[in-house]
TrEMBL record:
Gene3D superfamilies: Tetratricopeptide repeat domain. It is found in: Nucleus. Its main location: nucleus. InterPro entries: MAU2, TPR-like_helical_dom_sf. Belongs to the SCC4/mau-2 family. It comes from the Eukaryota. One of its GO terms (cellular component) is nucleus. GO terms for biological process: cell division; chromosome segregation; mitotic sister chromatid cohesion. It comes from Aegilops tauschii subsp. strangulata (Goatgrass). Keywords: Cell cycle, Cell division, Chromosome partition, Mitosis, Nucleus. This is Cohesin loading complex subunit SCC4 homolog. Residues 220-232 have a biased composition (Low complexity). Residues 201-240 are annotated as: Disordered.
């Protein structure tokens, strides 16, 4: 719990964006990253890798960032089977590809991510992906696509705020918030679950569109990210 609180605090520092805050974030996330293999499960591990990769991006270390993020994506798919997390990992990898000016790969990864986010009705992630698409179209100087995509993103933001307002207006909203706020599973139950699941096979049969390329142990988009990174180290459609 203490480690995860440090991770969330690191996210806050990363969002501030200045050099001093990045140093503070590294002091928080570094120890958690080094000890994450000793944690009970992989949920915490995928979260730590995601935040550490984000920090490396902010520190202008794209090669290390995409290697870390690619490893986190494989864990999210193969061990967790968490499609929402897979979509978010793909989004950050697409953002990274755009920063490296690999617009073709960025478009491919982002389209796969958007497909998953739409399947899950994950509107916040959709808005995030659409904002990256807007940057992509701006870099490609595709003005018409940029405008249409930006308008579509604005509609999604309005839709999200409407849904949030509806949820808050319900009579049971505060009651449910207070209920989940005080619920916490005893630690010994988590250890027992970990021991029970340790011998279970990995579930690779996930309902993911073929375009994502995650049906194999190592996604094609991720494989290219890792392979291209290894090469550099050794030598140096429109949104529907």
């Amino acid at each position: 719990m203490q480690s995860m609180c440090q991770v969330y605090a690191a996210v806050s520092y990363i969002c501030k964006g200045d050099a001093e805050s990045s140093s503070e974030a590294l002091e928080l996330i570094g120890p958690a990253y080094r000890t994450m293999d000793s944690f009970v499960g992989v949920r915490e591990k995928t979260c730590i890798i995601f935040v550490y990769g984000l920090l490396l991006m902010r520190q202008h270390n794209p090669q290390d960032a995409r290697v870390r993020l690619a490893s986190g994506l494989r864990i999210a798919h193969q061990q967790l089977g968490n499609i929402q997390l897979v979509s978010q990992y793909l989004t950050i990898l697409g953002t990274l590809a755009l920063q490296l000016h690999d617009t073709g790969q960025a478009r491919e990864i982002l389209k796969s991510s958007l497909t998953l986010a739409k399947t899950l009705y994950d509107i916040p992630t959709q808005i995030w992906i659409l904002s990256v698409f807007t940057e992509l179209y701006r870099e490609l100087e595709e003005k018409e696509n940029e405008m249409e995509n930006s308008e579509y993103g604005s509609k999604k933001e309005i839709d999200l705020q409407r849904r949030l307002a509806e949820a808050r207006s319900r009579a049971y909203h505060q009651e449910l918030v207070e209920k989940v706020r005080i619920e916490a599973e005893p630690l010994h139950n988590l250890f027992q679950k970990h021991n029970d699941m340790s011998g279970l096979p990995v579930n690779d049969d996930l309902d993911i569109p073929e375009s994502v390329g995650l049906s194999t142990p190592q996604p094609s988009s991720v494989r290219r990210l890792v392979d291209s990174s290894s090469v550099r180290r050794s030598t140096r459609r429109r949104v529907s």
